Amino acid sequence: MANTLDRRIQVGEIVVLNIMSMLPHFRSDPKWQLFKVIGGFGMSHTTGGSALYGSFVDGSKCAGNGYWIDKEATEKFQNGEWKITLEEAELMFEEDVKNEI
After folding, report:
1. Where are the alpha helices (DSSP H) in 1-100?
2. Backbone torsion region of residue 100, taken as left when φ is above 0, otherwise alpha when ψ lies between -120 and 50, otherwise beta
3. Residue 43 has pLDDT above 80, yes or no
């Protein structure tokens, strides 16, 4: 198992990171737990590697780990039952793209 979701993660899928894997000053705002995955061996639950590559809502790029994903929070998020909805998150990521242009 290369990620805690125990399934394939799709390119562009937004997951929720475990708050304990984050620096303390990022823990107060749930938007910093959102991570848009763009690649890495950790996308597949059947590979030996767990690396994930992606970005946060501010556009900062990061290499992460598939074991940093909070499975329960990600499932709630993707079902619209978390602190931030999928639609709100997509708008945050979209705004960042506009700011880069």
Report:
1. 71-78, 86-100
2. alpha
3. yes
User: Which residue is it, tokens 């899928």?
Assistant: 13
pLDDT at position 101 is 46
Give the angle 18-22-23 at the CA atoms, nearest 5°: 160
The pLDDT value recorded for residue 97 is 55
CB atoms within 10 A of CB 62: 11
Q: Whole-angstrom Cα distance, residue 3 to residue 9?
A: 9
Q: For residues 8 and 68, what is the distance between their CA atoms, to the nearest angstrom?
A: 15
**Parallel, antiparallel, or unpaired: how do β-strands 14-16 and 34-39 relate?**
antiparallel
Residue with token string 């290369």? 2
On whether the CB atoms of residues 53 and 63 are closer than 8 A, the answer is yes
Q: Is 79 left (phi over 0), alpha (psi -120 to 50) or beta?
A: alpha
